Amino acid sequence: MPSLLKARNYVIIMDVRDLLDEYSRIVSGVAEQLTPKVAALRVPRQASRGESLGSAVVFTGDGFLLTNAHVVGSAAGGTAAFADGTSVPFRVIGTDPLSDLAVLRATGETPEPAELGEADDLVVGQLVVAVGNPLGLAGSVTAGVVSALGRSMPASHAAGLIEDVIQTDAALNPGNSGGALADSRARVIGINTAVAGVGLGLAVPVNSTTRRIVSTLMREGRVRRAYLGVVVAPAPVAAPWRERLGRPTGLRIAEVVPGGPADQAGLRPGDLLLTAGGKPVATAQDLQRLMFAESIGHQLPITVMRNGALVDVITRPVAAS
């Protein structure tokens, strides 16, 4: 019997070692692929001495980079340095503080672009790898898991909230902002944006909404947004209504901004938002997709559940300031 127990313990130890080896191979593989494609940024501060440090991800073959709006601020350009020792100047093409995204363009040669993934496919507990340049140290890599999805955070340079943020326990530090958050296949599924506490990092997701923002920045240099004036969070539909509505979740209105379009239309905190513009809404991104320039000044019908009854209202979003 002792020999059998020793054999079993040996097998368990070997299994654990195999798992750790596989984990190491994944993280090192992502690092090998992505580190050359993540730049260290130096951005001159306006009206003051010194410079801001951050990171940026090459995402096209002709020199476009993606970073955070708060990294570049109001600067017109700066310098991007890569892991191979090359350094190139860049200019700021456009910024969108409400998503904390900015598009840059290098004026020299850049590495091959990183592959962009799809954050909507993430699940809590999934392995992610952060690649950036914390504290000005180039090519730093940390790993962790997706600890939560659908978070909100205040926009640092605009009035409003950045919605649908990814929360991770992969270690982030100042200078990581604008760097890549990648899945196990080295696909960039987020742009690291903030350190919210010890073991708590946040990233802007790469999904259809952010792709639209990025393409608009590349084309126009800014993003015109519609403003509704609500803070929402996913919430379950009451059991008796799930089958009738054919859906398990909606968006609970946590806050209505006084005097805003939602307030004027009669929406209230506690309402469960079910549809907007005739389309189901179950995530913050569902609502975000509707808050672009074409909705400004136009009627947007909304259906909510209030006190066990369906209520229809007509809102008219305004231009975000």
Q: How are the SSEs ordered, and which strands pair?
A:
Blueprint lengths: L1 H33 L3 E7 L6 E8 L5 E4 L1 H4 L4 E5 L5 E10 L4 E6 L20 E6 L7 E15 L6 E8 L11 E3 L5 E10 L2 E6 L2 H13 L5 E2 L2 E7 L2 H7 L3 E8 L4 H5 L6 E5 L2 E2 L3 H5 L11 E7 L2 E7 L2 E2 L2
Antiparallel strand pairs: 1-2, 1-4, 2-3, 3-6, 4-5, 5-6, 7-8, 7-10, 8-9, 9-12, 10-11, 11-12, 13-20, 14-15, 15-16, 16-17, 16-18, 18-19
Properties at a glance:
six-stranded antiparallel beta barrel; six-stranded antiparallel β-barrel; Pdz3 Domain; Thrombin, subunit H; globular
Question: What can you tell me about this protein's structure?
Answer:
By secondary structure, the protein is α+β, with helices and mostly antiparallel strands. 21% of the residues lie in helices and 40% in strands. It has a 6-stranded antiparallel beta barrel. It is globular and about 60 Å long. The termini are far apart.
